[in-house]
C-alpha cells in the first residue's frame, strides 16, 4: 500500500501536470540538500531511494572502497567497507544507510522550501517545452481566478498571468470562463520562461478569422492587414487569389454569421472588412469607409496622404475621437490628413472626375441595404450619401449611430435597426 508521502507526490503530479520522474528527481535533490545541511556536508555523495512500503525515504552515503583514504567524505577503507558488505573489494562502490531515526519529520520540514522551489522550476521548464513551438498561435484557456484587474488563466495545467494592458477594455472576466488568447512569444528570463499572451494583439483577430472562415484557412482569401482599437472597432483588409471568390463576402458570410462569430469572441468589437488594393489611393479610400472620399493626394516620399472629403463626410472620415482615420492610417501604413474638398484646386477636381471610372470600386457579392425589408428609397439614398450600401457595414451600429448620419430621423433609425436584426 502506498505511503501518504507517495500519494501526495502522485497528486502533485496530476495537479501540476508534471511527470513523476521530474517530481521524484526534484524531491530527491531537495532531500539530499536537506541531509547535507542537517547531518553532513556538501562534499558527500548522497543517494535517496523511495520504497512503496516505506513511510518516507532511505538515505544512502555513497563511498568508493580504496586502499589509502584521501577523501573521507567520498572514500572508505576496505576494512570498514567489509563491515557493511562482506564481499566488498578495492574499487567497489558501496551504499551505507545513514537515514536518521527522526529523518522523516525533520527532512520533510527542511526540504519543504527547496521542494517548492524545485517544483516551480520544473513547472516552468514543462511550460517552456509545451509552448516553445506554439508561438503565433491561438490558445484556448480557462480563467483560473480574477483578483481585481489581475487575471490568471489555465492553459491546460499551466497557470499564467494575463497582463492588464493585454486585456480587452471593458471585458469582464470570471472564474471558469473560456477565452481564446494569442500567444505572441515564449521567452526565457532570469525568473524562468514567460508566455506573452494577449487579447488585444491584432493577430488575435487574424487567427480567429482563420478558425471561422474556411477560405482564409485554405489560403484562397488572404488577410493583408489588421488595425485594432481593442473592444471597440477593428479594420481588416482582405484579398482573394480566386476571381470567383469574393473576399469580403467570404469573410462576412451569409447574413454576417462569420464575422459575427469573431465579434462575439472579442466582446462585441465591431469589425469592418475592406478590400485590399495595390493602389495606395484606392486602398486608403476603402480604409476610410464609411466616409466617401472625393480626392487623394499622395506624398510617396513621406508616405503621407491628403484626403479630401465633402463637409458632411468629414465627421465620418475622422470618426469618434479620431478613431476611423487612426485605424485607416494604421492599416495602410500612411499618415492621413483629412482635408476639406473646398480647398481642392480646379485641376485636382478635373483629375478626380476623369479618374472616377478607373478607380471605381468593384462590386461585391455582399447583400445590399436595398435588399432589407421596409427600407424606403429615401432611407437608402441617405445611407448611400455616407457610403453605407452593404448590410455588413450596418451590423453592430445602434440607433444613436444612425441618428448621427445627416437626414436620418429617429423613426428611420428604428426601422433600420429592426430590419438588420430581422436579417440575422
Describe the structure.
It is a single chain. This protein is an alpha+beta fold. It has helices spanning 4-16, 20-38, 78-84, 103-131, 202-212, 214-217, 247-252, 257-265, 280-287, 314-318, 323-332, 346-359, 377-385, 391-394, 399-403, 410-422, and strands at 46-50, 57-66, 75-77, 93-97, 137-147, 150-154, 159-162, 178-189, 192-198, 221-229, 233-240, 270-275, 293-299, 304-309, 335-340. The strands form four sheets. It has a five-stranded antiparallel beta sheet. Strand 1 and strand 2 (57-66) form a beta hairpin. Helix 5 (202-212) packs across helix 8. The longest helix has 29 residues, at 103-131. It starts with a helix and ends with a helix.
Which overall shape is indicated by the principal axes computed on the Cα atoms? elongated
The unreliable regions are 353-366
- Distance between termini? 62 Å
Radius of gyration: 34 Å
What's the helical proportion of residues?
25-40%
What is the beta-strand fraction? Answer: 15-25%
Total strand count, please? 15
Kindly state the mean pLDDT as a whole number? 82
Summarize the structure.
This protein is α+β, with helices and mostly antiparallel strands and 424 residues long. It is built from 16 helices and 15 strands. Helix 2 crosses helix 4.
